[in-house]
Amino acid sequence: MRVIGLMSGTSMDGVDAALLETNGEGVQAFGPWTTLPLLEDVRALLRGAMVAAQGMAAPGPMPPAIAAAERAITESHVEAVRGLLRQVGPVDLIGFHGQTILHRPHDRWTWQIGDAQYLADSIGVPVAFDFRTADVAAGGQGAPLAPLYHQALARDLAPPLAVLNLGGVGNVTFLGAGGEVIAFDTGPGNALIDDWTRATTGRAFDADGALAAAGRVDAARLAPVLVHPYFAAAPPKSLDRHDFDTTCVEGLAAADGAATLAALTVEAVAAGLRHLPQAPQRWLVTGGGRHNPVLMAGLRRRLGMPVEPVEAVGWRGDALEAEAFAFLAVRTLRGLPLSLPTTTGVVRAWGGGRVVQPRPTTGQARG
């Protein structure tokens, strides 16, 4: 199938859209991809939605702040899809992750906003969505969900191998020599660095790690964070974007705070090694964090083994998460598992997701 996958991650920097030709088990062809940067007013609405969601004790009616954010992020996805369709022509399916505003798997609650029916009607193509809630309802963590796609991509690569995604939150997929797939969130990725950079400099993120490179790690501030019980907890495990914050660096100079938060991201990855059956012989890094030389150098130093961007093996790091949800969209359509006991902690290989069809009254042309 020709599928457009979509991803708007916890960094909230843009909507990624990628074309994949896939049967949900392997990849037949990679098509064009694009990123639609999110406007600052949309990002502000998303931040407001996250605050509103954090204040809710349980699922309930959607507050106005979240409804406004959902309208805005859905329109951004419609715009991203239309832009890609102008390059690729008609497609069979869209994989729509939506925007995570809350993730509390221990409460059997994960919340991704986005109006899948509106997207289907606007484009005239079926939309697969709601990939996480079935896993969480069955006792799983609902994250990470990309490991089965990582496994499909890495079929010809020598194990043991780790694929590290440094988005807003970090997560790792371990691919073992015996075919095992283990995955979990490592800890903060780019989100805290982004938050700190925005608060101290007004810039959206630390471009090329320049701010962190100019600073010094405050080991005294870092040490108490590294004894957080999350790092010792055995996987499966996952995080909400707000489970960690920038409190540990408050009062530091901007550069020193960025350097210390970058070190936290690196140390969180290293802490995950204790939960793997053996040390990976190679680390491939995807997500925005691979563009940060401070993070990449820190990982190489701390892990003591090859750490490379996924482009080293011909993958597309800026499109990979969107591709994953194209892959999972087809698996949803075919009723194939999206997660495993070793990736989310669900009781067995578990399916999920839902598919909506475009309503014929919209009059939209397919694709």
Written description of the protein model:
The protein is an alpha/beta fold. 35% of the residues lie in helices and 21% in strands. It has twelve helices and 13 strands. A six-stranded mixed β-sheet has the order 3-2-1-4-7-13, sandwiched between helices. It has a five-stranded mixed β-sheet with strand order 10-9-8-11-12, with helices on both faces. Strands 5-6 form a two-stranded antiparallel sheet. Helix 1 crosses helix 2, helix 2 packs parallel to helix 3 and helix 8 crosses helix 10. The two termini are 14 Å apart. The C terminus is likely disordered.
- Summing up helix and strand content along with how strands pair, one would put the structural category as alpha/beta
- Gross morphology: globular
Estimated helix fraction: 25-40%
Q: Helix segment count?
A: 12
Assess the beta-strand content as a share of residues. 15-25%
User: Topology as H/E string?
Assistant: EEEHHEEEHEHHEEEHHHHHEHEHE
- Give me the count of strands: 13
How far is the first residue's CA from the last residue's CA?
14 Å
Order of strands across the main sheet = 3-2-1-4-7-13
Mean pLDDT: 96
- Uncertain residue ranges: 362-367
Keywords:
367 residues, 12 helices, six-stranded mixed beta sheet, alpha/beta, five-stranded mixed beta sheet, disordered C terminus, globular
In short:
This protein is of the alpha/beta class.
Chain-wise SSE layout:
Blueprint: E1 2-7, E2 14-22, E3 27-37, H1 40-54, H2 64-88, E4 93-96, E5 99-104, E6 109-113, H3 116-123, E7 127-129, H4 133-137, H5 147-153, E8 161-166, E9 169-175, E10 181-188, H6 191-201, H7 210-213, H8 219-225, H9 229-232, H10 254-271, E11 282-286, H11 293-303, E12 307-309, H12 320-334, E13 354-356
Parallel strand pairs: 1-4, 4-7, 8-11, 11-12
Antiparallel strand pairs: 1-2, 2-3, 5-6, 7-13, 8-9, 9-10
Helix pairs in contact: 1-2, 2-3, 6-10, 8-10, 10-11
